[in-house]
Recover the amino acids of this structure.
């Protein structure tokens, strides 16, 4: 380990970074310090060690017994979870230690984490810029080295986009590969629990610890025997793969993002992969279909936050209906209200055919389009987001522009496929990266490609970063 | 109407403030109509794609919210006396009603 500029140890390092980025909503400093001391004492990590002894952060919409579960919303401020999510329980069973809850856009609805009701989370590379969202807290904390990995949730890109903005690895698993039990539902048919990690190796270790069928989640699936690339190769490529490259939409990319994308394409080719151009014309309809389905499911899922079943209720109401209205009116933020309104509208009698059912047909068409392309290649290389981490105010993106920019990420959620975002370099002082989308249960192959890439292109870290957790 | 169904306690001013963003998104959603005729985008007409039950092929499956009392007194179903069983097990009852604490 390099000589530390923090002679007082990890606690001083943590406090200095956390004051700048604001990634946690709640944390146990003692647990973190103990874990850092133990990690420093071990010379290297073995395959057996995996996640054992390592601390991890948890996005505040995933339950950890005894910790808060606010979903970044005033409506749930102060709510303490009585149980843990299966993903958390499995990681704890593997020896990892949950050390805190992390900031997020309210109920996972946003691309900046500025939609949190509690605080801002800043990007460790430039604190005037957003960390991305909605898993901005986990991404910023991992990028700053405060934890080696963290759990997030990905409904339309909420793990991959902040990972991309902060320069860390972000894995959205196949739908059903990881139990959603204990994840507060926003759009149940789209979302998965995902991993944000400092390396592809670490992302794989965390994913392998928490995947698999869970009787508490009827949509979870047993990991299929013989799934592609389901072994570690330590960064050594077993065999070159065929990677389809999506060049559509390149004109919409910020020049630095386009440059990074081309660099990654060249580097993968240099590593021996066969690069072929592919098209996914169905993506034209991905974002409107995604937001139609997501808001419809949100309007149903968030009905439980009524002050009776869940949610902080007002001190006085004249009748039950007023209690529900006041609870929701005062508890939800503007973006959540907008999405509930949209979802309620598209599900109304007389409008379902025009919006919701059409969106479901488009979703099936997008799935069909991906199946067609993945029949001829092992993975698809795509951009993650059209821009690098954006600023705030005049330097920001409007809420509508942020939604339109989900085009490269939300399609994997619509199709239920695994997707892995990983950093490929730095352009103009900010991280740039790419994502790989693979066939269902093809996470291993995506991680193989990323790990081999990382072996020749080490992940850049922000100024002031120090490694406390060992690397593999 | 939609705001009322959503139970968000929105004032007229709040509805007016939310309207531009709401209409912008609805306009954006309307672009999906072109997909019906755009077989090139999907390799097949989406109208011909067979949707699964989860994809709402049959629309919402609903039933009338009516009690069926036909079998209530026949004891043919172990659940048929569930209502009276529940009432009997209540900590406090008045006639055929369960007494619950005042929550408001």
């Amino acid at each position: 380990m390099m000589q530390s500029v923090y002679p007082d140890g990890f606690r001083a390092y943590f406090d200095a970074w956390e004051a700048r980025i604001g990634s946690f909503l709640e944390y146990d400093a003692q647990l973190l310090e103990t874990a850092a001391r133990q990690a420093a004492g071990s010379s290297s990590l073995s395959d057996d060690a995996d996640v054992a002894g390592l601390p991890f952060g948890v996005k505040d919409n995933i339950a950890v017994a005894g910790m808060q579960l606010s979903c970044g919303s005033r409506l749930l401020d102060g709510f303490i979870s009585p149980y843990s999510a299966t993903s958390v329980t499995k990681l704890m069973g593997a020896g990892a230690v949950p050390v805190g809850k992390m900031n997020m856009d309210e109920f996972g609805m946003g691309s900046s984490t500025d939609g949190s009701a509690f605080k801002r989370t800043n990007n460790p590379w430039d604190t005037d810029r957003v960390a991305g969202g909605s898993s901005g807290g986990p991404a910023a904390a991992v990028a700053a080295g405060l934890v080696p990995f963290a759990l997030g949730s990905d409904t339309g890109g909420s793990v991959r986009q902040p990972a991309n903005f902060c320069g860390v690895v972000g894995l959205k698993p196949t739908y059903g590969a990881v139990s959603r039990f204990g994840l507060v539902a926003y759009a149940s048919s789209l979302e998965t629990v995902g991993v944000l990690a400092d390396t592809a190796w670490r992302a794989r270790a965390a994913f392998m610890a928490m995947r698999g069928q869970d009787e508490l989640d009827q949509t979870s699936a047993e990991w299929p025997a013989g799934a592609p690339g389901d072994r570690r190769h330590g960064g050594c490529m077993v065999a070159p793969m065929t990677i389809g490259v999506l060049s559509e939409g390149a004109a919409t990319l910020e020049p630095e993002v386009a440059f990074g994308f081309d660099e990654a394409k060249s580097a993968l080719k240099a590593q021996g992969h066969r690069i072929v151009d592919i098209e996914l014309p169905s993506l034209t309809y991905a974002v409107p279909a995604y937001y139609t389905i997501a808001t419809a499911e949100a309007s149903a899922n968030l009905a439980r936050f009524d002050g009776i079943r869940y949610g902080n209720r007002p001190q006085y109401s004249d009748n039950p209906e007023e209690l529900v209205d006041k609870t929701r009116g005062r508890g939800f933020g503007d973006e959540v209200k907008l999405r509930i309104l949209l979802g309620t509208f598209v599900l109304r009698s007389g409008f379902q055919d025009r919006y919701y059912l059409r969106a479901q047909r488009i979703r099936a068409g997008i799935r069909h389009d991906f199946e067609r392309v993945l029949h001829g290649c092992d993975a698809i290389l795509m951009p993650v987001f059209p821009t690098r981490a954006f600023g705030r105010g005049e330097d920001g993106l409007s809420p509508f522009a942020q939604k339109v920019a989900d085009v490269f990420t939300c399609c994997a959620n619509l199709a239920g496929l695994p997707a892995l975002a990983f950093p490929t370099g730095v352009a103009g002082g900010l991280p740039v990266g790419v994502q790989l989308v693979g066939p269902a249960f093809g996470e291993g192959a995506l991680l193989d490609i990323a790990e081999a890439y990382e072996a020749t292109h080490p992940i850049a870290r922000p100024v002031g970063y120090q490694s406390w957790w060992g690397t593999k | 109407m939609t705001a009322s169904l959503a139970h968000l306690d929105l004032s007229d001013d709040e509805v007016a403030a939310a309207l531009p963003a709401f209409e912008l998104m609805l306009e954006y959603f309307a672009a999906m109509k072109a997909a019906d005729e755009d077989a090139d985008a999907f390799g097949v007409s989406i109208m011909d794609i067979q949707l699964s039950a989860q994809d709402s092929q049959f629309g919402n499956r609903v039933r009338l919210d009516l009690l069926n009392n036909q079998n209530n007194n026949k004891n043919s179903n172990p659940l048929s006396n569930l209502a009276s069983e529940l009432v009997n097990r209540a900590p406090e009852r008045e006639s055929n009603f369960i007494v619950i604490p005042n929550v408001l």
Observations:
- The longest strand of chain A covers residues 419-427.
- The radius of gyration of chain A is 21 Å.
- Chain A touches chain B through 57 residues (CB under 8 Å).
